[in-house]
Amino acid sequence: MARFMESGHYAAHLRQMRLVYAERRDALLDSLKREAPGVLRIGTAEAGMHVTAFLAEGLQDEAVIARTDARRLGARRLSPLYLGRKREQGLVLGFSGASPAGLRAAVRTLCGVLDGPNR
Question: CB-based contacts of 105: which residues, under 8 Å, 6+ apart?
Fold first, then answer.
């Protein structure tokens, strides 16, 4: 590992992965903004490997996740991550393990869940 780092390969790897993850994040954010306006409000997404998406009034993350799990989307509930009484309803959406095309397809599937029956 020391040689890998000293040779500059590690720094090059980090630069490359930063570009890969930025492309994936941008694909997810662009798709969410285009496909889910009014249903999801996107949180700050300047760092990390996930995006926080707050659900529109009346939607419960527990019910949404029950439907997304059946479609293997890998979204997580936001509300259990809050301390205290006020718990925002939302989703935590990771992007590091999917291609931009895969993320766009996942957003379309998610929107089908959000627009579907028992919303």
Answer: none
At residue 115 the predicted structure's pLDDT band, cuts being 50, 70 and 90, is: confident
The tokens for 29 are 């954010």
Residue-level pLDDT at 5: 85
Q: Are the beta carbons of 108 and 115 closer than 8 angstroms? A: no
Fold classified for 21-115: Aspartate Aminotransferase, domain 1 (3.90.1150)
- The pair of three-digit structure tokens given for residue 77, joined into one six-digit string: 């509930």
Q: Order the strands of the 90-94 sheet from edge to edge.
A: 40-42, 50-55, 90-94, 76-77
Query: Model confidence over 6-36: pLDDT tens digits?
Result: 899 999 999 999 999 999 999 999 999 999 9
Residue with tokens 């000293």: 6
